[in-house]
Amino acid sequence: MEGMARWANPSSPHAEGRAARRALEDARARIKSALGWTGEVILTSGASEALAIGLGRSKVQRQLVSAVEHDAVFRAAPQADILPIVEGEPDEAFLAEYLRTGPPPVVAIQAINSETGTALLPSVNSPALKIVQDAGGLVLADCSQSAGKMPLPDADMVVVSAHKLGGPPGVGALLIRNFGMLEPTGGHESGYRAGTENLPGVLGFAAALDVAGAWSTGVEQRFDFKNALYDAADINMPGVQCSHIVSVAMEHLPSAAQLIRLDALGFAVSAGSACSSGTLKISRSLAAFGIPEAVAARTIRVSLGWSTTVEELDLFAGAFHDLAHDAAMRAA
Q1: Segment 3-37, tens digit of pLDDT
Q2: CA 260 from chain center: how many Å?
Q3: Among 36, 109, 188, 278, which residue's beta carbon has the most beta carbons within 10 A?
Q4: What is the pTM of this model?
Q5: For the packed helices 92-100 and 127-134, what is the interaxial angle rounded to 10 degrees?
Q6: Longest CA pairwise span in the chain (Å)
């Protein structure tokens, strides 16, 4: 409510504008503190804009992105080279050779894949991150799926989306070690973003981070849930797994049919990234992980939030098992 009451542009010099600026900067400080970030914060309209700024305005022209990045990364860096994924991890041999063959690049690697739950940067100092930085390169980590749920990697740029951690949609941030990594364009956010800041959204972003980590379930309970689903479906879990995203492929039912039947039961799941779930194409990300097309066509993604309860997990697991049993009986 405070954000809606502050109608003024935070860049305006009058009293109402100055009050809005104080609220904005207080929220920025809370976001930095909650995420443990000591660098700069550029507030954006979400992760896609943060990626566009980090990659599109980087002073480093040579770019490498992992094969399983979100489509927003490929839009922001359309000429980038592709880093293969081997057994659920960035191909370290390819990465080391790439770094030897040219100037230090900026490398985009997501912390957690949104479709499989695979942690590509599973620790603060992951091997791929250290390989790039030791060679003088920069790492941009898309932490849309991990921020507020696990520590941020020690990257040079970090992308965060508010609605992925319980905040409002339409707001996010690019965390950057220092502004010198980017070409300024003028406008707001110290000259690195056009457009008035979304003060109500930013305040909601900060408020969500204030309570981030207050999960209704424990890590072991979430992994138990994942294992319960794997009992009734093919396993899609390449590499190191997080606890809050499950990728499963029911044996006898296409993903679209699963979504319809589960939705009718009151469960909201998807068949990949929400930004591309309206398409009929097989997921590029699943293909890059080496998941066969026939399995990808039967794959759904189940995401857990901080407010998801054990009772809700049990209800979903039961419904999923019943659906898998019915599909198997019909196919027999």
Answers
A1: 666 777 888 889 898 999 999 999 999 999 999 99
A2: 25
A3: 109
A4: 0.93
A5: 10
A6: 73
Amino acid of residue 93: A
